[in-house]
Amino acid sequence: MLWILLAQFIIFNISAALYAYKFTKVYDPSRTEVSHSGTKNIFSKTWRLFSGPLQRKSVEEEKPSFAYNDVQLQTSNGLKIQAWYAKTDSASKGTVILFHGFLTNKSVFIDEAAQFLNKGFNVFMPDFRAHGSSDGYITTMGIKEVEEVKLAWDYIATKGEKNIFLYGLSMGAVTVSKAVAEYDLKPSGLILEMPFLNIQSLIKAKARAQGFDGYFVKPFSFFITFWIGLERGVKSFQLQTTKYVAKINRPVLMQWGAKDIYVSKDETEEIFKAIGSEHKKLVIYETANHESLLRNDPARWSATVSEFFSEYGKP
User: Based on CB atoms within 10 Å of each CB, which residue in 42, 169, 213, 312 is the most buried?
Assistant: First the structure.
């Protein structure tokens, strides 16, 4: 009996190690694989869960219609980080730096950037490492990516900008919170949309999205998080969004979709409650999934953001 348990433990860890490796690695978009994401075959679904996904590096599907400049930053280990920088046609009220989510890129924010420009703010839109046009094929869900937030902040600050807002979606929101806490950044305000609680919660959500739930998902997500830390040389269990937002003392607008399949209501409320700022607001979009809240409800998103800027957007 002991040998059986030991064998199961070893197999479980091999699966978790494989999943962790593939979950944190992106491949060239040209790589192909037969997808089983929509199959109802339990054996195919189980294999996909335990072997890990094949994740392609995101590519820009479109370019902005507004005028912009290409900007290149560089990390401490030599990775080139690509970004777009655009200035408003009117007198600038400040700059909004936008950070995208996991496995997407800066082009998903074209609509949001256009809104910010129309509201009188310049925009800066970087790709995280291993995303979009930036270098790299390894992602750590915000642990190492925090360096990109600091690089973007420093780039805008060196232009003499005093009124900087940080906007993050999902992984971008987590990474922004981490950067503010660790680098003691002082933005005029933060807009955090759909941040996840930690790596384990994200992995469990991915499993649920594939049709899995139950007792085995919790230990599996624990071991995957462990192997991510071991394989990528990071402290994976220390990525805790509540710990970062507790150190934020700047105004925060937090937004979430009630039909979000990756971030639960309990997670959202726990994160919002932990935010250290006295000036914070949570807005819930009842029909939104884990998606662009602007596209889900343009009028409400625009009015909510305008109100936030009106209260905290003056230099």
Answer: 169
How many CA atoms lie within 13 Å of 280's alpha carbon, on the beta-carbon side? 20
Residue 42 lies in a domain: no
Query: Is 40 inside a domain boundary?
Result: no
**Residue 173 · residue 242 · CB < 8 Å:** no
Nearest to 163 by CA among 62, 95, 230, 255: 95
Q: What is d(CA 20, CA 57) in angstroms, rounded to the nearest whole number?
A: 16
Which residues constitute the domain of residue 197? 1-21+96-315
Tell me how far the alpha carbon of residue 221 is from its chain's centroid. Answer: 18
Tokens representing residue 23 in the block: 């979950």
Q: How many domains does the chain have?
A: 1
For the segment 101-115, the average pLDDT, to the nearest whole number, is: 96
Check which CATH number belongs to the domain holding 12 and give it: 3.40.50.1820
In a domain, 76, yes or no: no
- pLDDT bucket at 40, cuts 50 / 70 / 90: low
Position 47 confidence tier, pLDDT thresholds 50, 70, 90: low
pTM of the model: 0.91
